[in-house]
């Protein structure tokens, strides 16, 4: 089941939102760090459009771990990014670069991702883009 996670991250790194959406169930629950839960592919696509407008990110050092059933999966990775456009409530964007450890948790059913939970240290990110 972790194959879908590898496809999801390959699509992320390729900037392929359609490829990411193909990995998700129609009713996916997307738990955003410091934000509200978004439900469904349309809400996920809107989130991706916003992120792609404000940030350019590439993930490295991706390690995917799974339980015995393959239905609960976790990933740890490094976010290598550039802050492109000022996001609401955050520091002004000036093309600042950042490197941030992060992780995600997934639930998989029927070969599709039904839940995505992502965590990173927002205070660390703010400190990096504020210097």
For the CA atoms, what is the radius of gyration? 15 Å
Helix and strand content put the structural class at: alpha+beta
For the biggest sheet, the summary is:
6 strands, mixed
Helicity, as a percent range: 25-40%
What ranges have pLDDT less than 50 throughout 5 or more consecutive residues?
Answer: none
Q: Which percent band covers the strand fraction? A: 35-45%
What is the level-2 CATH architecture name? Roll
Whole-number count of domains: 1
- Assign the CATH class: Alpha Beta
Along the chain, the helix and strand elements come as: HHEEHEEEEH
CATH topology: Nuclear Transport Factor 2, Chain: A
Please tell me about this protein's structure.
- With 131 residues, this protein is α+β, with helices and mostly antiparallel strands.
- It is 31% helix and 44% strand.
- The longest helix has 14 residues, at 41-54.
- The chain starts with a helix and ends with a helix.
């Amino acid at each position: 089941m972790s194959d879908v996670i590898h496809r999801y991250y390959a699509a992320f790194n390729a900037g392929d939102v359609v490829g990411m959406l193909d990995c998700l169930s129609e009713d996916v629950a997307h738990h955003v760090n410091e934000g509200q839960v978004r439900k469904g592919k349309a809400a996920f696509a809107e989130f991706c459009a916003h992120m792609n407008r404000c940030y350019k990110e590439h993930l490295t050092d991706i390690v995917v771990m799974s339980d015995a059933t393959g239905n609960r999966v976790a990933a740890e990775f490094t976010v290598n990014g550039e802050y492109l456009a000022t996001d609401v409530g955050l520091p002004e964007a000036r093309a600042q670069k950042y490197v941030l450890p992060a992780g995600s948790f997934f639930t998989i059913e029927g070969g599709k991702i039904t839940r995505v939970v992502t965590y990173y240290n927002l205070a660390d990110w703010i400190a990096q883009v504020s210097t």
